[in-house]
Specification:
Layout lengths: L2 E5 L9 H14 L3 E5 L8 H16 L4 E4 L10 H6 L3 H6 L7 E4 L2 E5 L15 H12 L6 E5 L7 E3 L2 E3 L5 H11 L3 E4 L6 E4 L11 E4 L14 E8 L2 E9 L4 E3 L3 E6 L2 E5 L9
Parallel strand pairs: 1-2, 2-3, 5-6, 6-9, 9-11
Antiparallel strand pairs: 1-12, 4-5, 7-8, 10-11, 12-13, 13-14, 13-15, 15-16
Helix pairs in contact: 5-6
This protein binds fe (ii) ion (2 copies).
One fe (ii) ion binds next to loops.
Length: 279
């Protein structure tokens, strides 16, 4: 049963060391087949912040974990204008990874990451026409029975966070058409520092069948409506179980797991089994 750990919005430079250590401990205990990190590695894209992120990644890799990462808007320099427009992701490529749209296959699961961080639309992000084509072509060549997972930093849907509606990445409608066509099953993203799970069809009318899984911030001190958290995603055939691990002030604790099953191209929640009566 392939297990993914989905971390997001680490924000080195505005992080809490205790949470970083606790994440590493839990990742090591949970033994995922892949650690997915959906962007915002740093707070301000400064060299020393990327060096902290790099050391974190090195420790994960030394523990034997594979990592798939995409950049977030905070990984593009905001105030260093020359760097922002001329070489926005140079430090990311040096310290996190050279591949901005990474791809990983594990037993029955195909994972593709897409970079939505841009210099011009700094905060909200965008999907390019080339990336939309890349999504189509990548999934066209994967095993039709595999679980198809797409990772972005920016959500492809407007989302409700408290009283606010946060916007979708630009060109998300075109991306959603390609995602529906390519049969993408899971969409993983971050950016809002707010964990949630939705059926895509409850968010927009023109979506294919995908589960939309948002991660909270794992280690940033800047939270929104919720404490820090990250996601554990267990995949078994056409069934997905999401467990959100939430920071309670001293450790990450498991929230109740939610299980969804995909049948005839549609997701539905599986009711948790009632505990057996004691004899
Ligand atoms: Fe963030
Ligand atoms: Fe972000």
């Amino acid at each position: 049963m392939p297990r993914l750990i989905h971390l997001s919005d680490l924000h080195f430079g505005a992080h809490d060391d205790r949470l970083v250590e606790a994440v590493e401990r839990r990742v090591d205990e949970d033994k995922p087949a892949l650690v997915v990190i959906s962007g915002d590695f740093t707070q301000r894209a400064r060299t020393e912040q990327f060096q902290d992120a790099c050391r974190f990644l090195d420790r994960l890799k030394e523990q034997g974990h594979d990592v798939l990462a995409v950049p977030g808007n905070h990984d593009v320099p905001l105030y260093d204008v020359l760097r922002r427009f001329l070489s926005p992701l140079t430090r990311y490529r040096r310290y996190v990874g050279d591949t901005l749209c990474p791809f990983h296959e594990i037993d029955g699961v195909t994972v593709l990451g897409i970079n939505t961080a841009r210099s011009f639309t700094f905060k909200d992000g965008r999907v390019s026409h080339e990336q939309i084509e890349h999504i189509r072509q990548t999934f066209e060549h994967t095993d039709p029975k595999s679980m198809r997972v797409l990772v972005t930093h920016h959500p492809l849907f407007a989302m409700q966070v408290g009283d606010e509606i946060t916007p979708a990445a630009a060109r998300s409608e075109l991306a959603l058409d390609a995602i529906g066509h390519a049969g993408v099953d899971l969409l993983l993203a971050g950016h809002n520092h707010h964990a949630s799970i939705h059926d895509a069809r409850d968010l927009v009318t023109r979506a294919g069948s995908a589960l939309v899984i948002q991660a909270g911030t794992a280690t940033s001190v800047r939270v929104r409506e919720q404490p820090q958290s990250f996601n554990r995603i267990d995949i078994e055939g056409s069934q997905v179980t999401l467990t959100v691990l939430v920071w309670n002030g001293s450790e990450f604790v498991n929230e109740d797991a939610k299980t969804f099953r995909q049948e005839d191209g549609a997701w539905s929640a599986v009711q948790a089994q009632a505990p057996e009566a004691a004899h």
